[in-house]
Design a protein that fits this description.
single chain; alpha/beta; 7-stranded mixed β-sheet; 6-stranded mixed β-sheet; 10 helices; globular
Length: 438
Amino acid sequence: MSELIVGIDGGTQSTKVLVFTPDGTVVAQGIAPLRPMLMPTPGVAEHPDDDLWDSLRTACQAAMTQLSERRGDIVGVALCSIRFCRALLNADGTLAAPVLSWMDERVGRPHHGDAAYVTAASAYLTARLTGQIADSVANYAGIWPVDHETWDWAGDVSAFGVTREQLPRLVLPGDIVGHIAEGAAEATGLPAGLPVVATANDKAVEALGNGLLEEDQLLLSLGTYITAVRPASGRREDAAASWSNFACLPRRYLDESVGIRRGMATLSWLRDLVGTDLAARATAAGCSLENVMNTKAAQVPPGSDGLLTVLDWLAPTNEPYRRGAMVGFDARHGWPHMHRSLLEGIAMTMRRHVDAMAAGNDAAAVIVAGGGSASDLMMQIVADVFERPARRTEVVNGAGLGAAICAAVATGIHPRFEAAVEAMVASAATFNPGPASE
């Protein structure tokens, strides 16, 4: 029997656990949704109770049940979790307060409090899995007091409002950070003693899982937060249109564009507005509600008959009064026009952001990742708007595969990251720009 590796992808809306063979084939998977965010006042967004852990263990249990007797073939597991969250932990690694979402304004300010540990969400989940308060340094971009040159905590962390003792031990992406503890094995179904491998922030892991290694490659990540990234030769000073992020390869970096907050969640918003009738149609057709929406929206001509969407469904903290809008309604327009206009608005906004960061103009194609890449309509719109082929990979869940690549390298299944990418990442479909984009 072939050795197996587990990639965990913890997102804003769900946790996905995928089990891979060394060639990148998915042999089992489990998905568990997260509960709605607690948002009692503007600027506050918290994950309720112990939702991140509950979702992770439920998804693990589902994947391990599918795997059945092959659980013994697993040689390693790697965890990717939502970036820019903040977790306050007790001395034993349990939560001292609800995890703050990346959408919570407080994560952009220094922490002041007496929690035993102040960490990213990834360190909290690592603690639940292994009992170790440790994490990948590549999960600590943004306000965290990390030295981007040494890939370690800065010499003075006091400006962040904490002591060095309150911060987790840092390791590099691809390092073994601990092993599955007995209690975690009982909760998740993962075999006790398995090595747990550090990865990076979710966009960097997704980039690795989509084969992004060379500087002339461009990735469009279609998630709850939409952004574009490309590999960089080194760390660059942050600019208005881009910033330098840690890559999921040790000592490597990514250039990342300005993004769209609550990006693909705008489609969920529209789905929920018109979903009652559509759900019945989807059930009758034996397909997903999203497929019904995409099919109808594909019948709308490019340009959505003049309906234009401005994607500001969640204003940034430095410009809190920005709002989203749909402009140009007339009697022709129905929800299919709204759906297509949202997709076009996402693509056009991201083309503008990519052009502004002066990156991607030399890319032969746009690699499209995230749940949105499963839509043929969205892929064609991206190809038309970016005026170059849009390509997606065989495994739509790039973050899960990127995590598994880290585990494959750490456990010796593949000798290095480049070899793992070559063996595990495969292209699935390419969409070329149509005549209307010329």
